[in-house]
Amino acid sequence: MALDLSKTDLSRCLQSKTLWLTLAHLKIAEASVCDAGLAGDVATARHLDAAESIFMRLGWKEGHARVWEQRSHRAIALLKSNTDARLRSSLLDEAAIANRNAYSLYESIQNSRGLGRIEALFKQTEDEKRGMR
């Protein structure tokens, strides 16, 4: 029995599969970021990069914003496990950039919950900066 799919059906099916794979990349990275030992792992960065690339291609701004949100969490997690002042400063800058990018994307789609999470990350980043002085 042959599967009879129109091009539209096939496109939707592939997009759905791509979306689920992308969400898996994001969730793996998110779980890795929660484990301080894995936050700096190259695989974590690769999962974030893969998710970002596909979300951008699909044009899904919320997914893209979530990647930036995880990049901020990752930078903060790495910050807490490092004592080198230069590296800590660089990680704070990285978190601030990620926060701004995520905020901009969440704002463009009027996602108030996302904005609230990013505002909390802005505060956490500022608190970390004050702690370095």
Summarize the structure in short.
The protein has about 130 residues and is mainly alpha-helical. It is about 85% helix and about 0% strand. The chain contains six helices and no strands.
Topology:
Layout: H1 7-34, H2 36-39, H3 42-58, H4 61-80, H5 85-108, H6 112-132
Helix pairs in contact: 1-3, 1-4, 3-4, 4-5, 4-6, 5-6
Q: How does this structure look, described?
A:
α1 runs parallel beside α4 (61-80) and α3 (42-58) packs antiparallel against α4 (61-80). The N and C termini lie far apart (70 Å). The chain has one domain (12-132). It is globular and about 50 Å long. The longest helix is centred in the N-terminal third of the chain and has 28 residues, at 7-34. The protein has helices at 7-34, 36-39, 42-58, 61-80, 85-108, 112-132. It is mainly α and 133 residues long.
Uncertain residue segments? 1-6
Structural domains: how many:
1
Radius of gyration over all CA atoms, rounded: 17 Å
Binned, the helix content reads over 70%
Based on DSSP secondary structure assignment, what is the total number of beta strands?
0
Beta-strand fraction estimate: under 5%
Mean of the pLDDT scores? 85
**Helix and strand succession?**
HHHHHH
| Shape, principal axes of CA atoms | globular
- Note the gap between the termini: 70 Å
Q: Determine the structural class based on helices, strands and strand pairing.
A: mainly alpha
Largest sheet: none
